[in-house]
Amino acid sequence: MTMATEPDDLLKTAANLPGPADDPTSPWARALAQPTLLGLFLPTFHGGWSASTLPRGTDWSFDYNAALVQSAEALGFDLAFGYSLWLPKGGEGPTRTDLGLESLTSAAALSALTNRIIIVGTVHLLYGPWHPLHLAKFGATLDHISKGRWGFNIVTGHRAAEHELFGRTQIEHDQRYVLADEAVSVLRQLWHDDQPFSYDSNTSWRFKDAYVSPKALHHRPVLMTATGSAAGIGFAARHADVVFIASPAGADIEAAIESLPAHTSRIKQAAREQGRSIRTLINPMVIARETDSEARAYADAIVAHADLETLAGGQKFSSDAHAWRNYKPDASAVIGGNLQLIGSPQTIVEQMVRLRDAGVDGFHIAFYDFVPDLAFFGERVLPLMVEAGLRFEFSSDL
């Protein structure tokens, strides 16, 4: 029997539907048992996260990223994903980011090469070719392929050029979250309902007798989003399991630690008002060496080799993102990351503890030279994170 669902009813009920944290056997519930989440932000685009020509091995190719994910999994990382770009060709600098992998398909392939780590695919929800029924079926299928280790990072698109690339006009900032709210509510009902239902959207999406099978293994895939605005926080509070945040005060570590407690508290309170809990995840660029002076010297060398042409090319694409309003095109932009953790292993972990105390629930880490820097992190930094109570000792048997 077909069930008709009204838009207002859908929006009211979606936030109360169960998620992967409600199933204690899910990979996401296992990840949440850690004191802080640990993720790897993959360099799936040329140049990785740093607009610098200082020699390194970082590469955007699938084989390079697959090896990184497998190394991160062996170290006990909880999740891995990269960002997604749909931009016209940018500048001609040596680290230009128009070379790179599409997130959803590459993440799907990575899920088949791993056994434990959660793989997240980034989806531009509003200007791609997506209908919610497509994504519901894709997500359920990928959840089965990965054995419950799948997630969607929902992006609404903050650059006008990306909308225009698809022949569209950029949607006003808050209206994007109205559309995303409805689309994700539809997704959640499709993943949950055992009976077909029909839907006539307030906005763009409509269907008749829709049904998705198989169902996801643990109610639904993990849902993520990145935001700093009131509209985005409201959307995240209703739907997301984890919010990818930036420091409201910019990339400076001291300013970030001062500004983050109020920001993270606001996000978590918004979720509580919906009867939900949510985790916050921040993206630090980690530059770790045996001593603080060695790490600082390496960071200075990265900046000294700045690819100014690529930086200038990226700045020509206008953005209305609220999360980045206080970020400046300075040395931190060359290095990359929401903020930079630079120093000895002890210094890095001390900074992480301070961020944890400021309400950050996890670290989605990037490196300048990924392969050796990840190995150093695993050997020298992770054991100190365990000592500091940021992580439990990892065992592949758990």
What are the defining features of this structure?
Luciferase-like_dom, alpha/beta, 8-stranded parallel β-barrel, 3-stranded mixed beta sheet, TIM Barrel, flavoprotein, oxidoreductase
Sequence stretches where pLDDT stays below 50 over 5 or more residues: none
- Which assembly state applies to the chains in this document? single chain
CATH domain topology:
TIM Barrel
Strand arrangement, major sheet: 2-3-4-5-8-9-10-13
Number of separate domains? 1
Major sheet details: 8 strands, parallel, barrel
Record field, number of beta strands: 13
What portion of residues belong to β-strands? 15-25%
N/C terminus separation: 43 Å
Please, what is the average pLDDT? 87
Rg, nearest Å: 20 Å
Q: From N to C, what is the helix and strand string?
A: EHHEHEHEHEHHEEEHEHEEHHHEHEH
Domain Luciferase-like: 38-361
Keywords: Flavoprotein, FMN, Monooxygenase, Oxidoreductase
Pfam families: Bac_luciferase
GO molecular function: monooxygenase activity; oxidoreductase activity, acting on paired donors, with incorporation or reduction of molecular oxygen
